[in-house]
Amino acid sequence: GSGTFSNNNPNATYTPSAADIAAGSVTLTYSSVGQLAPCTQQMHSMLLTINPAATVNAGANQAICSGNTATLLGSMGGSSSSITWSTSGSGTFTNVAALNAIYTPSAADVSAGTVQLTLTSNDPIGPCTPAVSTLTLTLNPSATISAGGAQTICSTTGATMAGSFGGGASSAIW
């Protein structure tokens, strides 16, 4: 292999190189040094199998207007063979096992203003652990607007408007 050892102690850590990882395994040999004559050097080899790590990416943080849904764009790689979406909120997914699931926020999610959506890989075979990635979904309040009630005026007078705005709107124009 072409990786590196942390030291020459019996409990050293071997860090595999990119070539070792691509190969999927490496043979490591431990050799005696400084043995007394007439004894010969002794060696022992072991096979180190390198499993690819699971990877997932939940995608970029998103912002949507309350009342809308969020289409997720997750991805997976390495030893991941399946995924599951979960939420810190109480909304629902169209399919928790789909990378492109659609999340529908609950009223409690909208009230909180944000939720965390987490993508987790399956637990791969071997010593590797599941991969986890999280995105923040911001739920912006929808704009509200009212022009006021209907009015009747005389042609020689103006109408006093009773418009209003709120929610996610910072202003309004006539």
What's the helix and strand layout?
Elements: E1 4-5, E2 14-15, H1 18-23, E3 25-31, E4 43-49, E5 54-57, E6 62-65, E7 70-71, E8 75-78, E9 83-87, E10 92-93, E11 102-104, H2 107-112, E12 114-121, E13 132-140, E14 143-146, E15 164-167
Mean pLDDT figure:
94
Q: How many distinct beta strands?
A: 15
Strand content: 35-45%
Q: Report strand order across the widest sheet.
A: 6-13-12-9
What's the order of the H and E elements?
A: EEHEEEEEEEEEHEEEE
Low-pLDDT segments, ≥5 res: none
Q: What Rg do the Cα atoms give?
A: 30 Å
Largest sheet: 4 strands, mixed
Distance from N terminus to C terminus (CA atoms, Å) equals: 73 Å
Helical amount: under 10%
Shape: rod-shaped
The assigned structural class equals mainly beta
Helix count equals 2
Describe the structure.
The chain is mainly beta and 174 residues long. 7% of the residues lie in helices and 39% in strands. The chain has two helices and 15 strands. A four-stranded mixed sheet has the order 6-13-12-9. The longest helix has 6 residues, at 18-23. The chain is rod-shaped and about 120 Å long. The model has no long low-confidence stretch (mean pLDDT 94).
